[in-house]
Amino acid sequence: RVHTAYLEGGPFDYQYQDVGPMRFPKSVQYAGTNETVPINDQQLLFQLGEIMDQMNQGQPNYSVKFIPWIQESPNGLYYFSGIKDADGLSPTAQRSQEQSAIDRTCAGGSKCRKPH
After folding, report:
1. Is there a contact between 38 and 29 (Cβ–Cβ < 8 Å)?
2. Which of 7, 29, 57, 75 is 20 to 30 Å from the Cα of 35, by its Cα?
3. In terms of C-beta density within 10 A (0-12 exposed, 13-18 middle, 19 or more buried), how is residue 17 classed?
4. What local confidence, expressed as pLDDT, does residue 54 receive?
5. CA–CA distance from 78 to each of 68, 83, 84 (Å)?
6. Average pLDDT for residues 11-24, to the nearest whole number?
7. Is 85 left (phi over 0), alpha (psi -120 to 50) or beta?
8. How distant, in Å, are the alpha carbons of 11, 13, 36, 66, 109 from that of 47?
9. Beta-carbon count within 10 A of 113 CB
10. Are 69 and 21 in contact (CB under 8 A)?
11. Distance between CA atoms of residues 9 and 100, nearest Å
12. Are the C-beta atoms of residues 83 and 99 closer than 8 Å to each other?
């Protein structure tokens, strides 16, 4: 989620909208065993998309498009705890691996530790 917009009175009214990408994984891979297991509940969502595309007969304005989710990338930004590079920008994953904690400043100008 990138942003939550509250409607009509605030968060306690339970009227809100989340803005940002939604992820619908088809499977999960467990780190300890490298076993990949399908997430069967999500298959219903993908089947619904296929049925809706058949119903709208290929009209591009109504097509359901699932795009691949990229979990990690060397150019992905590490944005957390207000950590920024010396140039004031959020570091990329690759730069975070390459630079030392000395180059980092947290919000308020204090020195920060590098993410693990």
Report:
1. no
2. 75
3. exposed
4. 93
5. 20, 8, 9
6. 72
7. beta
8. 33, 33, 21, 12, 50
9. 10
10. yes
11. 45
12. no
* Tokens, residue 55: 């119903």
User: Cα–Cα distance between 16 and 4 in angstroms, integer?
Assistant: 7
Nearest residue to 26 (alpha-carbon basis) of 49, 54, 57, 4? 49
Q: Which two tokens stand for residue 13?
A: 């009214």
Residue-wise pLDDT tens digits, 44-103: 888 998 999 999 997 888 888 888 777 778 888 777 677 777 788 888 888 777 765 444
- The DSSP code for 105 is B
Q: How far apart are the first and last CA of the chain?
A: 22
